[in-house]
Design goal:
Elements: E1 2-6, E2 9-11, E3 17-24, E4 32-38, E5 44-51, E6 54-57, E7 65-70, E8 75-80, E9 89-97, E10 100-103, E11 107-111
Length: about 110
């Protein structure tokens, strides 16, 4: 079971990034998928979630972040537009399916001028 993330980096305010998370070893198409972020010294918070065919977003990212999934490629994406300094964090994907769950390794997103 594995989730591998990519796509983080250093960008300027107003820029965009797309994070990817590819899963293996579990029934990806049956899994609920979520994106989380973690600020230094704090717990992980959900920013976007995909389950029951719907996407849901945390208030501060609504309208700027878009989550999508490609079950044929076992990949979930987080398109992040209009990035702000407050979006600087480590971002994690998570998958939950019947009988199991897994986290990605995390990818750093830094928004700074």
């Amino acid at each position: 079971v594995q989730l591998v993330e990519s796509g983080g980096g250093l960008v300027q305010p107003g820029d965009s990034l797309r994070l990817s998370c590819t899963g293996s070893g579990f029934p990806f198409s049956d899994a609920a998928l979520t994106w989380h972020r973690q600020y230094p010294g704090q717990g992980r918070e959900v920013v976007a979630a995909s389950f029951d065919g719907q996407m849901r977003y945390e208030t501060s990212v609504k309208g700027r972040f878009t989550m999508s999934r490609d079950d044929a490629e076992n990949t979930v994406y987080l398109q992040m537009n209009s990035l702000q300094s407050e979006d600087t964090a480590v971002y994690y994907c998570k998958a939950i399916w019947g009988g199991g769950s897994a986290w990605g390794q995390g990818t750093q997103v830094t928004v700074s001028s």
